Each structure stands twice: as structure tokens, then as C-alpha cells.
Amino acid sequence: MGETGDLLDGPRARGAFLLRVLMEPPWALQITEDAPLTMVAVLTDGSWLRQPGEESRRLTAGDILLVRGATPYVLSDDLTTPPDIVIGPGQSCSARDGRDLSGELASGVRAWGNHSAGRDTMLVASYPEQAQLGTMLGAALPELTLVRGSDSPLLPVLVAEAARDALGQEAVLDRILDVVLIAVVRAWAAEAPSGVAGLQVLADPAVAEAVRLIRSQPAHPWTVDALASRAGVSRSVLARRFQDVVGIPPIGYLAQWRLSLAADLLRDTDRTLAAISREVGYASPFSLSTAFKKAYGVSPQAYRARTTA
């Protein structure tokens, strides 16, 4: 099981946020989004990335920003343009005086900006839940990553599809987004220095074995003791190293993996909730429903209805 392969097995977007941003100079966006991961694909030359304490960088078409959580940054047409629009948690959008701009700057299907034919264009996509991104990928990436010159052939397809409003379009966009993100992370991993935190996320043999067991046998009644025994280390050693490498305890990772699989089965199959519960390791449909609603905010039935409509 390769390290990068496991990082890239995580993304499973479901109802991801996608928006085409169309801006005409002068403009500047101050951003403190709080999604587990936001991807900004730069589609035209000439904009700038500004970060607190970092050297400003000029962006060109094909550049991709990967931003974790509420990492602050500014995108603008010019280094001298002061931020006049604030993008906050939950994709909130306001002027510097607090006035809501969400509706005022909407300009079509998944489009937003100060001009419908603006010179500077970007595609913004956010994973709304950590479980959809994957714990290991989330732990591996720096707070802000700039990948220069992405050559993913599906990026133009994603941009084009984001402008469409067709039956099942949300599911189409989710699947394309996953593939584009995988291509971008693969490009980043190929160029990043070997010592970058997170690239060694599965370098620990004991943690790698525990992850393999969980992924290959999600319905098994795993305990930390059982995983440690199979991995050839003590319970305390596995618990500590798993937390250090993956970012959550082994049983927390098991729960996330089971719910991710359950979401896939709800969306992609017509299996009953009872059958899905057994397949992913929950004792009953009730226990799965309780855990699922806590993680995704809706019941399994509501999630199925929303994602298969």
C-alpha cells in the first residue's frame, strides 16, 4: 500500500460547493473560508496571491491553490488594491462595511463576480465535510499549497460543467472534482521535498497496517488492541503513533471510513439501510442513522433522496 495512493483514495465529494468567479479590475478578495479544503483554479493570467508574512506571488492560468480551513489570504488584481470584499465561513460574502453581497454579485449558474465578462476568472470548489475529503489527505496538505501549471485534462471539463444546470449535475460535478483534486495533489506530491510534513503519513509500518486492516475489513469489530496485535506493536504505541500520523485515533478513523462507505452505498446502490449497516460494520440501521446524521447533518434516507434526485 503506497503512501500517495492512500492519500488519493480519500476524496469523495458530495454536494461540493462550486463557483465560477468573474472579476473586473480593480478587485480584491479577503478570504477566511472554513471548509476542510478549498481549491481555487486560476483560469486567467495576472492576479496576485497575498498571505500574511509571506512574499506575494503572481498567478497565471493553470495555477491551483489548495487551502485548508480558515487560512487567511487575499486574491487581487494588483498588489496595491485594498480588499473590498470579505469571503468568510460558509461562503459568506460581504463588503468591508458588513453589507451582504451574495445576491448582488451573483451572475448566473454557479457564477459570481463584479462583471459577467471580467478579465480575471477562477473556479472555486470546496469540500464541505472532512469525511468527504479524507482524513489522511487533510492531514498531509500544508495550510496553503500553490501548485503551478496544473495540466489536469479534466479541469476545463469541470469549468464547463459548472456552468450547466442539468439533471444530476451535482453528482457529475462531484465526481469530476474528485478526479481533478487527485491530479493536483499528485502533482504537488511529485514536486514536494521528501521531508514535507504529511507526505510520510503512512511511512510508519504499524500505522500503515492498521489503516490497511480498517479499509479492507470495515465490518470487522476492530478494537485498538486487535489492530495493535495485528500490526505487531503495543496498544499504547499504536494509539500514539496513529494519532500523530493520521490526526485522529484508530477508532475515530474506523468510524469515518465506515460512514464514507455508507454514503457511497446510499448514493450508488439501492441496498436497504439494514444491508448497508451490516456491510459497513454497524449493529443496526438505527445506530448507523444516528452516526450518519451526526456526521453529515441529514438522515441516510434524506441523503439518498438528495444525491439521487
TrEMBL record:
The keyword ATP-binding does not apply. GO terms for molecular function: DNA-binding transcription factor activity; sequence-specific DNA binding. It holds the Pfam family HTH_18. This is AraC family transcriptional regulator. The keyword DNA-binding applies. The lineage of its organism: Bacteria, Bacillati, Actinomycetota, Actinomycetes, Micrococcales. Residues 208-306 form the HTH araC/xylS-type domain. Keywords: DNA-binding, Transcription, Transcription regulation. It comes from the Bacteria. Gene3D superfamilies: Homeodomain-like.
